[in-house]
Write a structure and sequence with these properties.
Elements (H helix, E strand, L loop, with lengths): L1 H9 L5 E3 L6 E3 L2 H4 L6 H13 L6 H8 L4 H10 L16 E15 L4 E13 L15 E4 L9 E3 L16 E4 L3 E4 L2 E7 L11 E10 L7 E5 L7 E2 L9 E14 L6 E13 L2 H21 L8 H23 L9 H28 L8 H8 L1 H5 L5 H4 L1 H21 L1 H5 L1 E2 L2 E2 L5 H37 L1
Parallel strand pairs: 3-11, 3-12
Antiparallel strand pairs: 1-2, 3-4, 4-8, 4-9, 5-7, 6-10, 7-8, 10-14, 13-14, 15-16
Helix pairs in contact: 6-7, 6-8, 6-14, 7-8, 8-14, 9-14, 12-14
Length: about 475
């Protein structure tokens, strides 16, 4: 600087100085100009003084953060003054931010119709922010501070298999806990809904495996790396986890994975929490399983009633209607797109089919015993139920067991026959519907009806044994 001024002074020929109030000018010689210039040392000193005050935080800025504020307010002002929430908190851009993820379960549930698992939990996120460090001695030994969402950088960690809308924030607006070393701890309560592939074959006594897959939505592994919170390989179950729950957690697994996709050379890490859940609710047994067993017993017992009892049709009709109501409930509660049909649904559908067939058999046997017949039953049926098969089916003394019911039926048929014979004997010997009817005496008519009642009773006893075996096999298969 001084050399430049010296060259400039020697190039001057003269300097005209105009004195105030005078019209004359004074010419100064070149040597006298040197006396007007500042010394060399003083110029250097001024330069040094100008550069020394160019510090990152000006005096006005320090005064604005420190004046009249507490230590916590000062620290908050200094940390957030030049902070950029959109930049990853690392000074070396080639390094990745490591975010540790953990979970503590409060409650969980499964929606079979939508194939969705709902989880209420406390999430745990931990990472280091290199721009949020300070010396506690400068702030009255303050080692921690709380900062709100939107004030510092937050990782974009989401559930990959989420069933919620993208506008829904599962973590809420809880604060961050920042330590003086730059470590950030974030423990937000979360309500998460995730898709789960359900196997409803053994519903409602089923066991399901569901997963929650967490990862960064926009950053790869070279920008945001993931790790397990405190290296915990299991999901923590909090102490106040409800005891009156439908699902029991048999096992939980926390695992860190790395995936390389065909489209991109970078690795994409994720943290997956796997749950093995078992449904444990006695109400399902009381509501679904027990009624089905009662329906089967009702159907079997109907075959033990006398062939002329009309109550069996009413009982079986009620049982069939009950099965249809349960099947409609299953259709509204369970998904149709599931590959495996629940065994209980198949059990009810098979039971409904068997009850329907039993209702048809009861009507047939009822018509055998109640309608007036003019000819006897087939001989092979009469001989079978009158012989050893009838003894095995307890039909040997059947007439005496149901004597009161059959005698009343015989008297009714006898009165009807006598009235018709007294009214018009020619009509009895005529043709009815193109078929000739023989004239039968009262004893012959009673014998024919007894044979038909015996056949009807034998058929129902046979169906009783058959249904008992079928229901026993069905129950053992579905149990």
């Amino acid at each position: 600087m001084w050399a430049l001024l010296k060259v400039f002074s020697t190039s001057l020929i003269f300097i005209t100085v105009q004195v105030t109030g005078q019209n004359e000018s004074t010419t100064l010689p070149p040597d006298s100009i040197a006396t007007l210039l500042p010394p060399a040392g003083s110029v250097k000193a001024d330069v040094k003084t100008e550069t020394s005050i160019n510090t990152p935080i000006s005096t006005e800025e320090v005064t604005a953060c420190d004046k009249g504020r507490s230590s916590r307010q000062k620290l908050r002002c200094h940390l957030l003054e030049h902070y950029d929430i959109h930049v990853h908190p690392v000074k070396d851009s080639s390094k990745a931010v490591t975010v540790a993820i953990g979970m503590a379960i409060i409650h969980l549930d499964v929606n079979e119709m939508k194939s969705v698992m709902g989880v209420d939990a406390w999430m745990r996120f931990d990472w280091k922010d290199e721009f949020l460090t300070w010396d506690p001695m400068d702030y009255d030994n303050l080692t921690q501070i709380h900062l709100a969402v939107g004030e510092i950088w937050k990782p974009d960690i989401f559930v990959y298999n989420s069933a919620e809308s993208t506008k829904f924030d599962p973590y809420g607006q809880t604060h961050f806990l920042v330590s003086h070393t730059g470590n950030v701890l974030w423990v937000p309560p979360a309500h998460i809904k995730a898709f789960c592939k359900l196997d409803l074959r053994y519903w409602p006594l089923d066991t399901q495996e569901c997963k929650l897959k967490f990862g960064s939505w926009t950053s790869h592994g070279h920008q945001i790396d993931l790790a397990l919170y405190r290296n915990m390989t299991q999901v923590e179950l909090l102490d106040f986890y409800t005891n009156n729950r439908e699902w029991v957690s048999l096992a939980t697994v926390a695992q860190r994975n790395r995936i390389v996709y065909d489209c991109c050379p970078e690795t994409y890490p994720d943290v997956t929490f796997e749950f093995i859940l078992q449904r444990n609710s006695p109400a399902y047994k009381a509501v679904f399983v027990l009624p089905c067993l009662v329906i089967m017993l009702m159907t079997i017992c109907c075959f033990l009633l006398p062939p002329t009892a009309g109550e069996k049709i009413t009982i079986n009709g009620f049982a069939f209607l009950t099965c249809c109501i349960f099947l409609l409930y299953f259709a509204s509660s369970l998904p149709f797109h599931n590959n495996a049909i629940p065994l209980l649904v198949t059990f009810y559908s098979n039971t409904a089919a068997m009850v329907g067939i039993a209702l048809l058999l009861n009507v047939t046997c009822f018509s055998f015993a109640r309608d007036r017949k003019y000819s006897g039953p087939p001989k092979f049926l009469k001989n079978a139920f009158s012989g050893s098969l009838g003894k095995c089916l307890c039909l040997g003394n059947y007439y005496h067991q149901v004597s009161s019911t059959h005698e009343r039926l015989v008297l009714e048929l006898t009165d009807m026959a006598e009235s018709e014979q007294a009214g018009d004997r020619d009509q009895e010997t005529g043709h009815h519907g193109g078929e000739e009817r023989p004239i039968l005496s009262n004893d012959s008519q009673n014998s024919v009806m007894r044979d038909w009642v015996l056949v009807a009773a034998g058929l129902e006893r046979f169906f009783f044994v058959f249904y008992t075996i079928i229901f026993a096999i069905t129950t053992s298969v579905y149990a």
